[in-house]
């Protein structure tokens, strides 16, 4: 009988491992911000056909490059004079794999359709990619307008910590050397301080440098004592985090992860306790059976009792 119990307990442990491994995911497609043109096109018009072709080309290009831009005149169906030329681009974060880039861009295009129905122009930033389209050319045009600015809770930096954070931010801004100049995607870290910056690759090297420096300057002045900070301008962004804290996207993903871990720990403790209790009670039941020739409860009813206490189906123990 004991051998059967030993064989069934790993099933319960396997359930715990599956539960533990199913909660973690990278929020690359978490929404940060978006905007739409007030002008509308007529559904079913050549404009819509050109736009669909443009957005499809963005998604199809993403598995092969972290950045690309297109104009509708270069894509089938070829636009006529009835439809103005459309411009579009996408920019994936510099550390994404090609499959993740495509997934993020596809998600952004889908959300744009919901956010900006029939709009002649739109832009959307997810955590790991940016997509924009319009009928007015914006390619190669500098844009340092502040789109989003967020700061975390205050940490009350000491002089040393503040200097370390500023040094990391200076590095990603390009003033710290180390080959950061004119790179579209820059990362830096020191101790538990981490920073990342990126500009859209339609900008020239000097435009990129200028935009990122502006974003970093705003981070320093607006989030001086914060645990994390995000500044997104029209064509670039800069972000930093201290001690693992990170905004993640406005949803404060680190807090969500903490809650998931706490809940998971409680569930694992509860299930382990129930499993031990079942083994103990089954042992007592066998002693009663040997001493009195009968039991006061059945094993099947015992399994049913504890399965009703758990938040997911429980595998009955065979004793």
Largest sheet: 5 strands, antiparallel
The number of helical runs is: 7
User: Based on the structure given, which CATH architecture of the largest domain is correct?
Assistant: 2-Layer Sandwich
End-to-end Cα distance: 5 Å
CATH class of the largest domain: Alpha Beta
CATH fold annotation of the largest domain: Killer Toxin P4, Chain A
Q: What's the CATH H-level homologous superfamily of the largest domain? A: Gnk2 domain, C-X8-C-X2-C motif
Strand residues, percent: 15-25%
Q: Provide the spatial order of strands within the biggest beta sheet.
A: 1-4-5-3-2
Low-confidence stretches: 1-26, 176-180, 248-264, 309-319
The 3D shape can be described as flat
- Beta-strand segment tally: 10
- The helix-strand sequence is HEHEEHEEEHEEHEEHH
Mean pLDDT: 78
Q: Using the CA coordinates, give the radius of gyration.
A: 28 Å
Summed up, the domain count is 3
- Which structural class should the secondary elements be placed in? alpha+beta
| Percent helix | 40-55%
Membrane topology: Single-pass type I membrane protein
GO biological process, one term: defense response to bacterium
InterPro entries: Cell2Cell_Antifungal, GNK2, GNK2_sf
Keywords: Cell junction, Cell membrane, Disulfide bond, Host-virus interaction, Membrane, Repeat, Signal, Transmembrane, Transmembrane helix, Transport
């Amino acid at each position: 009988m004991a051998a059967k119990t030993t064989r069934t307990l790993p099933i319960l442990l396997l359930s715990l491992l599956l539960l533990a491994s199913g909660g973690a995911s990278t929020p690359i497609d978490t929404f940060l911000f978006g905007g739409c043109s007030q002008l509308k096109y007529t559904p079913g018009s050549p404009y819509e056909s050109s736009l669909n072709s443009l957005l499809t080309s963005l998604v199809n290009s993403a598995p092969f490059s972290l950045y690309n831009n297109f104009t509708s005149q270069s894509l089938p169906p070829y636009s006529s004079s009835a439809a103005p030329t459309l411009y579009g681009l996408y920019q994936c974060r510099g550390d994404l794999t090609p499959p993740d880039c495509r997934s993020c861009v596809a998600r952004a295009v889908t959300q744009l359709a919901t956010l900006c129905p029939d709009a002649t122009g739109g832009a959307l930033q997810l955590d790991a990619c940016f997509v924009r389209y319009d009928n007015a050319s914006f390619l190669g045009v500098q844009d340092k307008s502040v789109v989003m600015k967020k700061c975390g809770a205050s940490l009350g930096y000491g002089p040393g910590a503040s200097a370390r954070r500023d040094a990391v931010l200076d590095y990603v801004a390009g003033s710290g050397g180390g080959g950061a100049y004119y790179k579209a995607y820059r990362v830096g870290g020191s101790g538990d301080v981490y920073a990342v910056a990126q500009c859209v690759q339609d900008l020239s090297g000097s435009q990129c440098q200028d935009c990122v420096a502006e974003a970093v300057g705003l981070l320093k002045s607006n989030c001086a004592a914060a645990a994390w900070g995000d500044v997104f301008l029209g064509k670039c962004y800069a972000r930093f985090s201290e001690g693992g804290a990170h905004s993640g996207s406005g949803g404060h993903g680190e807090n969500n992860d903490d809650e998931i871990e706490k809940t998971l720990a409680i569930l694992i403790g509860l299930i382990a306790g129930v499993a031990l209790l079942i083994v103990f009670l089954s042992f007592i039941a066998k002693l009663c059976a040997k001493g009195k020739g009968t039991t006061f409860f059945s094993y099947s009813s015992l399994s049913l009792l504890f399965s009703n206490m758990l938040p997911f189906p429980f595998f009955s123990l065979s004793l």
